[in-house]
Specification:
Blueprint: H1 2-20, E1 29-30, E2 33-34, H2 40-46, E3 50-54, E4 57-62, H3 87-97, H4 108-122, H5 133-140
Antiparallel strand pairs: 1-2, 3-4
């Protein structure tokens, strides 16, 4: 009898929440883009590779969110040049971020990668030589996804 009451209460709660719908999610803003407003299932597989040359090595299959696109900073003060990129790893990363994953969120890796890059490009600590934050947003995101924090 007690179990039946508990099950009835749970069913009533589930039914009520389904009838009234879940409250709308607040925007999740990264670098001026509402991450929840982006159709990741369209964006991620449509990404084209970019090229990067560093230390005399050119990789032609690099994801636009890869850290090899960041301006080299000798944080360890070794005085050495930028290290050469690992082209095989960059190609694997590109493939992984442009194909759906198995699991709950098939485009979660791609989404996280873009969120990190948008936040890095918006900040002042990490620099990029290839393009500005605004150019990056225009190239990959629709204007309808642009938001400011707090909107």
């Amino acid at each position: 009898m007690k179990k039946r009451l508990i099950y009835s209460a749970i069913i009533a709660l589930v039914t009520a929440s389904a009838a009234y719908g879940a409250p709308p999610l607040k925007p999740l803003i990264a670098g001026g883009v509402d991450i929840r407003a982006v159709d990741w299932s369209t964006l991620c597989p449509s990404i084209k590779p970019v090229s990067v040359t560093r230390a005399g090595v050119t990789c032609n299959t690099v994801h636009p969110t890869s850290i090899v696109l960041q301006t080299w900073q000798d944080l360890a003060n070794t005085g050495g040049p930028a290290p050469a990129p690992d082209c095989e790893f960059q190609a694997q990363l590109f493939s992984r971020l442009t194909r759906p994953n198995t699991g709950i969120d098939p485009w979660g890796g791609c989404q996280e990668s873009f969120m990190r890059t948008l936040n890095n490009r918006e900040g002042t600590r990490i620099k990029y030589d290839d393009m500005s934050l605004e150019q990056f947003r225009q190239q990959y995101f629709p204007a309808s996804a642009y938001k400011k924090k707090g909107e």
